[in-house]
């Protein structure tokens, strides 16, 4: 597959929860290596959309098509479940806001990182261990903590462990749901910096949901502003933030507190 | 359903129970489940577990399987931790003697049905024998994945990496795989199965065994099976291959060096001995003239080697 | 001052209109440009001139595709082809920025924890230059702009205005892109550093870069600009409420 193939093609995705429109006719394309930010206030449908994209929630209508490494595009909800689950633990990653949702808390850090490797058939302990060590380093976790349980880690460390656990399989697409939410500011800065570097280095595409526009500006190439389940504006990140067109985007941008 | 009326055999034993306690419809249901379990080796087949006249955890699953397969001409052996004479073994043997009036034995080679808790007999089983395991927790993923729906998908799609994570954790924490019993196996290159809490020492005996092996979990309502001559592979890593326990000394009673040994505390002075967990195996060896260090009187023997203090 | 003949057009803006609609302030409409056109050739420096509020910075941001427009075309020469930024997909715009368009803003956007050296090397890294070479060239550029070496390993958040501006200039010039947009690059610099920036602009022109700049400093403007684009002539009737 070349960089000229769309990685993720999203067409008219709708998802209702009873009367509530969580996703209202959302369409966009994501290209390899591109970082797309989804911003909007709580309840705007960001996370629902993310869950649809990641194959975790089936939309009521619309198409989500993923192009695999062989260049074949397929509807992720039309494929067999095992195939989708295989994608989810090899080609994709999902970084949850709460690391408890994305980590096995009673498994050591090394085991958490190694799981994806073992999932695809790694059966050499030494190699798995070596790979886990490499990733501990890359996400700036102390090597001495490789056999510690994540529950003994701070929030920032847990989040970095979650990222390592996802990146170890060399994914092409990572979904992130408020990855810096709940972290204090200095920890957040370190995490953002790390993410920025890893994303560039690995050329991995990212869909990141956040309500923090500063996070969106730092990480994403493009932005989609959501409100009431619909995309009200999208474009280059700096365009949307510096010259917002839609009334809601303007409100959002003008509501940022200056430090 | 056959139109032929089945005569209720009130003359089976003294109690007036149906043959082997369970009613015939229940046995049919369980036999169907057993057939399915044999057809899909290692797959946990749900079944309608019945209330038995003993508590869950005492072997209700194994008893129901045994009750469904046992016939008038069978010879039953029941062991608990390898021994024929512990409470559980004695009770279950008496239960079938009473409700099915079948012959019972302690000799492995004479038995046609062997119900077991936590061991496989040392003597190699034959094609005309059936081994019935009592299983407390049939789901090997239970402590790794709490969601039942997710467990089923993991089995259905063979997403077994997470089992390997458990072994990884052992090595990471203790330098080797420390799982010593209920050691997970892969049956026929497909399903990962909990072999019930047998010591991993017994795992190799499951592989390619001529005997049919049936597993019953009464509380969890699951039956699974290993058909005769089926590959059973104990999970491991390339650089940490599966191995079994070894002991530094032979059986104190029969001198065996190839059996699973229990440690027996002899006194409060630190005296101890090791003896075969399989009591029938040990007895048979001693009858053949093999003896161990403690064969005469274990407690006397253990004092001989000690300095005369106190 | 040399005016080159028959040089390639690098920037070609035509029929540009831009209106700000302030939804949060009673939907006030502020029209900035109507039907603005300009072009800049390779090796040429054009200074935007006009009073405060004439839209110099707005035009600059439009040229960088940072602001959107209502009408018109913003064509730049990217790898030999004219590309209209106004109608291009975001990924194309990013590609053009990476390879063609350099932008030195008045203020440095500081990223926590990223060292000055990495800030300056980043445009090169984005083009695929390996880390060692990118750092080498970044060091050369920082030295040239008299940024003290002891600061290179630090994040520029705490630097003085002049230091931050020089870091920003270094970052803008290090990749030697074909088009440079300079928004008051010398505003808070002393005489020596101003000279230094003027030298960089001259070199850029010599290698054939097209430069568009806002120069508050008349001395700088007279020294580097080949042409002056008078914004007063293009100023649309502004401030009319909708």
First-residue to last-residue Cα separation of chain A: 45 Å
Cα-to-Cα separation, first versus last residue of chain C? 46 Å
Radius of gyration of chain A: 18 Å
Average pLDDT of chain A: 92
Sheet/helix structural class of chain C: alpha/beta
Oligomeric state of shown chains? heterotrimer
Strand coverage percent of chain A = 15-25%
What do you see in this structure?
- The complex is a heterotrimer of chains A (259), B (310) and C (242).
- Chain A has 259 residues and is of the alpha/beta class.
- Chain A is built from ten helices and ten strands.
- In chain B, the strands form three sheets. Chain B has a seven-stranded mixed sheet with strand order 1-9-8-5-4-2-3. A three-stranded antiparallel sheet of chain B has the order 7-6-10. In chain B, strands 11-12 form a two-stranded antiparallel ribbon.
- In chain B, strand 2, helix 3 and strand 3 form a beta-alpha-beta unit.
- With 242 residues, chain C is an alpha/beta fold.
- Chain C has a domain of 118 residues: P-loop containing nucleotide triphosphate hydrolases (Rossmann fold), CATH 3.40.50.300.
- In chain C, strands 6-7-8-3-9 form a five-stranded parallel sheet, sandwiched between helices.
- In chain C, helix 3 packs across helix 4 and helix 3 runs parallel beside helix 5.
- The longest helix of chain C has 16 residues.
- The chains are: A alpha/beta (259), B alpha/beta (310), C alpha/beta (242).
- The interface between A and B is medium-sized, with 25 and 19 residues.
Task: Please describe the topology of this protein.
The complex is a heterotrimer of chains A (259), B (310) and C (242).
Chain A: E1 8-17, E2 20-30, E3 35-39, H1 46-53, E4 61-67, E5 73-75, H2 81-89, E6 92-95, H3 99-102, H4 109-119, H5 125-138, H6 155-167, E7 173-177, H7 185-202, E8 205-209, H8 213-219, E9 222-227, E10 230-236, H9 237-242, H10 247-254
Parallel strand pairs in A: 3-8, 3-9, 6-7, 7-8
Antiparallel strand pairs in A: 1-2, 1-4, 4-5, 9-10
Helix pairs in contact in A: 4-5, 4-6, 5-6, 6-7
Chain B: H1 24-39, E1 45-46, H2 60-69, E2 75-80, H3 87-99, E3 103-104, E4 113-117, E5 130-134, H4 148-156, H5 161-174, E6 185-187, E7 191-193, H6 203-206, E8 212-217, E9 222-226, E10 232-234, E11 261-265, E12 272-276, H7 279-287, H8 298-304
Parallel strand pairs in B: 2-3, 2-4, 4-5, 5-8
Antiparallel strand pairs in B: 1-9, 6-7, 6-10, 8-9, 11-12
Chain C: E1 9-22, E2 28-41, E3 45-49, H1 56-63, E4 71-78, E5 81-84, H2 90-99, E6 101-104, H3 116-126, H4 131-144, H5 161-173, E7 179-183, H6 191-206, E8 210-214, H7 218-224, E9 227-230
Parallel strand pairs in C: 3-8, 3-9, 6-7, 7-8
Antiparallel strand pairs in C: 1-2, 1-4, 4-5
Helix pairs in contact in C: 3-4, 3-5
């Amino acid at each position: 597959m070349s960089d000229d193939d769309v990685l993720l093609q999203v067409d008219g995705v709708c998802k209702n929860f009873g009367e509530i429109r969580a996703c209202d006719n959302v369409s966009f394309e994501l290209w390899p290596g591109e970082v797309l930010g989804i911003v909007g206030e709580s309840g705007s449908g960001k996370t629902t959309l993310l869950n649809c994209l990641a194959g975790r929630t089936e939309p009521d209508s619309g198409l989500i098509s993923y192009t695999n490494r062989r260049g074949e595009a397929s509807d992720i909800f039309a494929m067999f479940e095992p195939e989708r689950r295989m994608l989810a633990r090899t080609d994709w990653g999902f970084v949850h806001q709460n690391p408890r949702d994305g980590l096995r808390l009673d498994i050591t850090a090394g085991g958490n990182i190694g799981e994806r490797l073992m999932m695809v058939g790694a059966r050499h302990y030494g190699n798995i261990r070596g790979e886990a060590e490499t990733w501990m380093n890359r996400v700036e976790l102390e090597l001495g903590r490789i056999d510690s349980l994540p529950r003994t880690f701070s929030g920032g460390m847990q989040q970095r462990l979650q990222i390592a656990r996802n990146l170890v399989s060399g994914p092409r697409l990572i979904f992130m749901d408020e990855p810096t939410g709940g972290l204090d500011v200095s920890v957040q800065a370190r995490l953002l910096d790390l993410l920025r570097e890893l994303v560039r280095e690995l050329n991995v595409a990212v869909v990141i949901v956040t309500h923090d526009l500063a996070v969106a500006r730092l990480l994403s190439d493009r932005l989609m502003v959501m409100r009431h389940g619909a995309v009200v504006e999208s474009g280059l990140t700096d365009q949307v933030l510096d010259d917002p067109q839609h009334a809601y985007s303007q409100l959002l941008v003008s509501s940022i507190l200056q430090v | 359903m056959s139109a032929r009326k089945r005569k209720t055999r009130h003359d089976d034993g003294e109690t007036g129970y149906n043959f082997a306690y369970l009613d015939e419809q229940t046995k049919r249901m369980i036999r169907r489940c057993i057939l399915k379990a044999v057809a899909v080796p290692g797959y946990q087949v749900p079944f309608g577990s019945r209330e038995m006249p003993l508590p869950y955890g005492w072997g209700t699953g194994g008893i129901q399987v045994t009750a469904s397969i046992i016939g008038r001409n069978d010879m039953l052996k029941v062991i608990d931790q390898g021994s024929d004479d512990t409470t559980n073994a004695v009770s279950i043997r008496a239960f079938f003697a009473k409700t099915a009036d079948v012959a019972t034995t302690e000799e492995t080679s004479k038995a046609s049905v062997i119900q077991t808790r936590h061991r496989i007999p040392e003597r190699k089983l034959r094609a005309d024998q059936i081994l019935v395991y009592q299983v407390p927790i049939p789901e090997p993923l239970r402590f790794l994945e709490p969601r039942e729906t997710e467990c089923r998908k993991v089995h259905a799609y063979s997403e077994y990496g997470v089992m390997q994570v458990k072994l990884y954790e052992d090595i990471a924490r203790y330098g080797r795989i420390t799982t010593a019993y209920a050691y997970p196996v892969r049956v026929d290159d497909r399903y990962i199965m909990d072999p019930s809490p047998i010591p991993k020492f017994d795992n190799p005996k499951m592989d390619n065994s001529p005997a049919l092996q049936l597993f019953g979990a009464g509380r969890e309502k699951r039956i699974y099976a290993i058909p005769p001559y089926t590959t059973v592979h104990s999970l491991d890593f390339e650089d940490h291959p599966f191995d079994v326990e070894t002991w530094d000394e032979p059986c104190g009673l029969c001198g065996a060096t190839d059996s699973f040994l229990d440690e027996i505390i002899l006194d409060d002075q630190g005296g101890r001995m090791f003896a075969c967990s399989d009591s029938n195996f040990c007895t048979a060896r001693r009858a053949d003239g093999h003896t161990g260090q403690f064969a005469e009187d274990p407690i006397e023997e253990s004092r001989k080697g000690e300095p005369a203090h106190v | 001052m040399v005016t080159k003949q028959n040089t390639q057009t690098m920037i070609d803006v035509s029929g540009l209109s831009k209106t700000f609609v302030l939804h949060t302030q009673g939907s006030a409409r502020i029209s900035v440009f109507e039907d603005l056109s300009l072009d800049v050739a390779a090796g040429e420096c054009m200074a935007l001139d006009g009073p405060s509020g004439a839209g110099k910075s707005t035009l600059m941001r439009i040229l960088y595709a940072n602001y959107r427009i209502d009408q018109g075309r913003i064509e730049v020469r990217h790898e030999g082809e004219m590309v209209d930024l106004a109608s291009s997909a975001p990924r194309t715009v990013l590609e053009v920025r990476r390879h063609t368009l350099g932008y030195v803003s008045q203020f440095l956007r500081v990223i926590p924890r990223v060292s000055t050296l990495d800030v300056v090397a980043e445009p090169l890294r984005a083009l695929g230059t390996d880390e060692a070479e990118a750092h080498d060239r970044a060091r050369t550029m920082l030295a040239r702009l008299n940024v003290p070496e002891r600061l290179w390993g630090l994040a520029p958040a705490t630097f003085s205005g002049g230091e931050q501006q020089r870091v920003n200039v270094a970052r803008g010039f290090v990749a030697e892109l074909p088009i440079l947009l300079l928004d008051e690059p010398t505003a808070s610099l002393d005489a020596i550093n101003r000279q230094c920036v003027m030298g960089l602009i001259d070199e850029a022109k010599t290698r054939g870069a097209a430069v568009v700049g806002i120069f508050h400093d008349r001395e700088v403007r007279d020294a580097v600009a080949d042409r002056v684009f008078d914004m007063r002539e293009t100023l649309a009737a502004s401030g009319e409420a909708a």
